[in-house]
Amino acid sequence: MNSIYNKLSKEEALPLILREIYESRGYNKYKMGEFVPYDIYLENRNFLRDEGIITFTGANGKLMALKPDVTMSVVKNVADETVTKKVFYYENVFRMSNSQYEEINQIGVEFIGGEDLYASTEVIELACRSLEAISSKYILSINDMGFMAGLLEELKLNDEAELELSNIMKLKSLTALKKFCSKYELDDKQCNYLKDIIRLEGPFAEVLVDAKNLCLNEKMEIALDELDELFETLKAINLSDRIKLDLSIVNDLDYYNGIIFKGYIDGVPKAVLSGGRYDNLMHKLNKKQAAVGFALYLSYIDRLFKNETKYNSEAVIYYGNSNTVDVAIAVSKLSEIYKSVRAERYDLNHVKAEKEFNLVNGEIKEVKKNA
Length: 371
Fold this sequence. Notes:
The protein is about 40% helix and about 25% strand. The protein contains 14 helices and 16 strands. Helix 5 (about 115-135) crosses helix 11, helix 6 runs antiparallel to helix 11 and helix 8 (about 175-185) packs antiparallel against helix 9 (about 190-200).
């Protein structure tokens, strides 16, 4: 298989490499259609709170959606008798962001029925392996929604304020936090405490010690104990070096619970991977199983592939007025040496190749480039 990968660009090989990683843990391919009934998402629009859904009226007059998400489809198709189901997918999803249509190429995994910490660990391992397949310079930031749930219990905010605080934490905006504290009449002690939460991110083991000093109730302590056990497990399988603890990572409590995480690649300004445990979503959709998964947004890493593309071909041969037989023979000979060979009649400076050749009277002559 490696010989096949060597003939592909990294952009082409990556989905195949990731598929191999997922199948090695028993995940099967899941495929969904491009168009889905809008009512699948209507009652759970907040699951896609930051994204718009593109809708249209189908031929039968039914309101349809251009596939905005895969997780919801996987959940909807889980049978009541399912004990565990492990799937991966490779799909394009369509969303509206900032009044513009956006097509996002993504690959991801869903572990349905995995209710224990091992399930979360396995999915996080696959997330790390996925990021590592792209670049060794990656970071996976982790938190536990139980910590946020415990915090909100102490603050006793209304739903609107809880959502506002979640968004502020995501942005890590101390200015917005100050306005928030004033708006909802939080005292200085509470405001300073929230500042400490937002700032608390970094090497897992170090931040965990500081985080334990910020616990206000048993729910927060349980969340940190789970994170501690998770980190020790990741350390045992040599994945702890790239793990960060970030207490400002939050998702919607109506849908997510337990471990949540985001993945970052050096050279890309935003998270390229996002995931976590979503038992609450399962229960909202009348499914009894637990679930955890992630999505890797391949569209976000396009720039990395473009930066790596220095050449159109490994070799190019310019054949001028040579006859067709000589050109075909020359290309065949070069193909025994180089993975990709491009034949062009003239050099018009429109092709970039590592090696350049001219075909003169049936002979292949390398073009010596100036140092």
